[in-house]
Amino acid sequence: MKRLPLALSLVLVVALGGAACSSDDGPKIVVYNAQHEQLLEEIAPKFEKKTGIEVELRNGSDSELAAQLRQEGEASPADVFLTENTPAMSAVEREGLLAPLEAAATDPIPAQYRPDSGLWTGFVARSTVLVYNPSLVSEDQLPASIMDLADPAWAGKVSFSPTGADFQAIVAAVLDLKGEDATRRWLEGLKANGTVYDGNNVVLESVNSGEVATGIEYHYYWYRDQAESGENSDASELHFFGDQDPGAFLSVSGAGVLKTAEHPDEAQQFVAYLTSEEGQRALADSYALEYPLNPAVSLDPSVKPFAELEPPTVAVSDLDGDKVVELLSDAGFVL
Amino acid sequence: MGRPTTTVRRLGAQAARPPGVLVLLGLLVAATSLLPLGFVVVSAAELGPAEAWHLLTRPRFDDLLWNTTRLLVGGVALSLALGVGCAWLVVRTDLPLARLWHGVLCAPLAVPAFVNGYGWISTTHAVQSYWGAVLVVSLSYYPLVYLPTVAALSRLDSSVEDVAASLGAGAWSSFFRVVLPAISPAVLGGALLVGLHLLGEYGALQLLNFPTLTTGILDQYRISFNGPAATMLALVLVAFCLVLLGLEMLARGHRRRSRVGSGVGRAAARHRLGRSAPAWSAALLGLALLTLGVPLLSLLRWLVRGSSSSLPGGDLAAALTTTLGLAVAGGVLATVAALPIAWLAVRYRGVLVTAIERAVYPANALPGIVVALALVTISIRVVPSLYQTLPVLVVGYVILFLPRAAVGVRGTLELAPPVLEDVATSLGCTRTGAARRVTLPLVLPGLAASVALVSLAVGTELTATLLLAPIGTSTLATEFWSRAAAVEYGAAAPYALALVLLSAPATWLLGRAAVSRNPRRLA
């Protein structure tokens, strides 16, 4: 067994290689990041430069990281948790894993984008839209409400990504606004009418290439593609439902500090930076094109202005992720 | 294979009882290999009949079951037709340029199925259907039938056919009544491999938007982690694998295929294609366009356009480094783990040793997703400090690829029977000197080959890596995947190219091995 030490040392080399990027001069916070990886990779260095606090990102999806935090419990190395949508953050809040945020972090954000508990705060928002292909459905045929997409008239003309956290947040909003029975009927209609894809970029590409007439997703997929090359969006348009329709649901991305954070002060500073005018400006100017929630900052005017979205009123703590999974399962989208 | 060593052991000076340390190590490796199966059994017991029934009657389950079944039937059937047909053309007809065609027909193995799926879906949406899925996976996996069939046909004793012909059988009748039964173990073995690969396939089917049990497990995992739904699907998936193994054994049957005498050594007469030769060449060219042309041309097209972003030099280098590190660690560890198993099997036969050796092989039939799910669950429950760490990922690779290493290492150790060491000591060598100067040089090339073979497999593994790679650890496959799944086809292209290059050497070796014992018959 002469080769065993060699093998072990190789494993160690690999393991250390992974950790080597993190030298340990100065405080370092670990951020469990379910927001888009690229976005935080733009913001974190700015924060590091300003404060000297190092940021280690661990990227994953909403439910994956929420589940990981729940499994790790007190042993979690995480200082900060960032989500794309609120249900995963609420789940972690219910487990009692979050510490109250300091006023510096919450004050810049209007109260409707924060839970009453003060345990986390929204920091950016995304609007639900219907992306459509004008060669397959004309503007005057577009539905007034997202609920209409369950009508037989839309058979074969709608697509979405039900295994993703985004669509699940939209369903959660419909559930909150319309109640369980209406949501069940709506999902059954969508199941009959719709094409299921894996991922919102795939939805966009499929609509743009004429595979399917419309797709339910968030606004920024289309805008980002426009800003980049337009390759997957030039042949499609966005339809904003507005009018407080569930289809105008505004999903909030949340930021919270873990109770068990090893560097609680630095973690609070990080969230405060995200909500500060400076941090929000950096978010707004990034490729992300999500809406900043600090009223002092707004997006580039090429994106539909925040004030014109007319979203329905949905309390950020009210979204019930577990119930949504049950409804999606009954409708046959997931097991 | 083991017979000659039995004789050698009687002659040699080895004790019949294996050393305790070796047995302990063997038991440890065997137990690790059996972890995923243990996970499946324990989970089944924990779920309980009520919960299991509830999950099995969900509407989504019917879809996944139906899709998995029809993909298996269609994919295996098409792979069989392509694999056996092409093998016949190459080995048993006067097809021009047969050796060249052999290379072309093996080459699809160098394009991982998920890269092939990417090539197709970034070219046309038409493959997002049942038939599209069957076509794409068959184009990727038919070589698994083709290679063993070529090997079997090349080694077939042609005199049996001569007898059939002398008794009045025509070409077709002789093929179906004489040749096919003789090569059926190889063909069935290939079909089984295709079936197991189809059951474990994730990347290609996800890109083609064709949900099966395996893609369903990853969907559930993203929604509720290692919850009961993912576990239940894993159970059903393992049941599918067992059914396939059973079917293959049934089809193989108990017919005897031995013969008396050594047969004739000459090559079988090649069927003359005559005027249809150009048509068959054209058909093979068409196949090559589908298997290699579409994915490689689309890869090149995206490389040139690279529209999703500029060439990611830093990311690519980082992913390459991680991939190489993991590949070497996986290759070395799997080979090291195979050593005690193979050593025991070669030098000390016995009930316990046989049990240890056999315990390693079931993992061969387990999809990567099941191994990954098992390790996630076990590490969280039993050793939470290891959860989301590289050692768990490497252990996953070892379990998945240990069967390959074990076969290779065993074959290698058989080259160095103990009698050689006895001779060396009788000539004045010390025991360690004999091991160093006689045994080591004999086995080293084989061990290196085993490391290389496993490393190449690790380097292109996607499904288990997606679940087990610690957050923040990116391999070529996961980096490719995150881009391809986000429709950033241009940005995915450099990673796809790297994966193809990584798969090429193993493919070349396999292609050569299939005809190596009878090179003349292909010439």
TrEMBL record, chain A:
**Pfam families per record:** SBP_bac_1
> Which keywords appear in this protein's UniProt record, sorted alphabetically?
Ion transport, Iron, Iron transport, Metal-binding, Signal, Transport
* Signal sequence residues: 1-19
Asked if Iron is a keyword of the record, the answer is yes
> Which InterPro entries does this chain map to?
Ferric-bd, SBP, SBP_1_CS
Question: What family is reported?
Answer: Belongs to the bacterial solute-binding protein 1 family.
Task: Give the protein name, as stated in the record.
Answer: Iron ABC transporter substrate-binding protein
Give the organism the record lists. Answer: Nocardioides aquiterrae
Q: What is the lineage of its organism?
A: Bacteria, Bacillati, Actinomycetota, Actinomycetes, Propionibacteriales
